[in-house]
Amino acid sequence: MLNEASGKHYLDCKDYSISNEEFSLIYYKEYDVLKTTPNPKNIDKYYASEKYISHTDDTKNLVEYLYQKVKKITLKRKLKLINSLKTKEKNILDIGAGTGQFIKICKSNGWMTEGIEPNKKAREIAAEKEIILQNDIHQLKGKKYDIITLWHVLEHIENINEYLDKIKRLLKPNGYLIVAVPNYKSYDATYYGSFWAAYDVPRHIWHFSKKSLKRIFKEINMEIIKIKGMQFDSYYVSILSEQYKQIKLPLCRGVYRGFISNLKARRSKEYSSNIFVVQKKD
């Protein structure tokens, strides 16, 4: 995907949530993308923590409580989005399904669902809801879907082009791929710099702009038909970023900064995270 020699140092940042190790972000102009370096070979250990909120339904502290409350709202918005897309049938695959909450709401609204989640603990929590998740995309050979969703997943994938090619083969003709990713060109990313929680190194290998994904999808002959901002993300990310800075009143400061980020994004369209609705054209 990249000419590694063309990369330039962009920023140094730390894994504040689990290891406290430091990493660098390298900028590649041709894709307007950042890449985390080094990329640890044993990446699993950076997910193996109760602190990794996507793999739990816990509400042990205020941030977890707010995350789970907001998740209920965003799940309804995600459902509304997929219901708005014209599909012949209602087959959906959720990749990076976590604890299965999105699949659960889709299933209860008439969708035929399947999900992939590599984390064993998250799959076990999903199984308690009677949602059985596969652990790898290779287990889906021969199947086709009307919609495939990647909610904050693509930034974790090392070989993007190869992975998207596999996903494309799983889509029906004119099927939809929905991708949500953080936006390193948002106001909150600029404001917090190395403390920006959505860098989430080293779990996030890639850090995208809208320009990044427009080029990536153009190269695989898929058309972006809609881009939507995820307004709740700026609040959650800003609260976490304030905690990383060890500033007093992180909740109040984070909510304020998240509001400012969304306010600025109304004009710039550079939201903290964006959803890309992409259609298969061949």
Topology of helices and strands:
Layout: E1 8-14, E2 22-28, E3 33-37, H1 62-83, E4 91-95, H2 101-107, E5 112-116, H3 120-127, E6 145-151, H4 160-170, E7 171-182, H5 187-192, E8 206-207, H6 210-219, E9 222-229, H7 231-245, H8 250-268, E10 273-280
Parallel strand pairs: 4-5, 4-6, 6-7
Antiparallel strand pairs: 1-2, 2-3, 3-8, 7-10, 9-10
Helix pairs in contact: 1-2, 1-7, 7-8
Q: How would you characterize this protein structure?
A:
The chain has 282 residues and is of the alpha/beta class. It has one domain (4-280): 3-Layer(aba) Sandwich (Rossmann fold). Helices cover 35% and strands 23% of the residues. It is built from 8 helices and 10 strands. The chain has helices at 62-83, 101-107, 120-127, 160-170, 187-192, 210-219, 231-245, 250-268; strands spanning 8-14, 22-28, 33-37, 91-95, 112-116, 145-151, 171-182, 206-207, 222-229, 273-280. The strands form 2 sheets. The chain has a 6-stranded mixed beta sheet, sandwiched between helices. β1 and β2 (22-28) form a beta hairpin. The mean pLDDT is 92.
Question: What's this, in brief?
Answer:
The chain has 282 residues and is of the alpha/beta class.
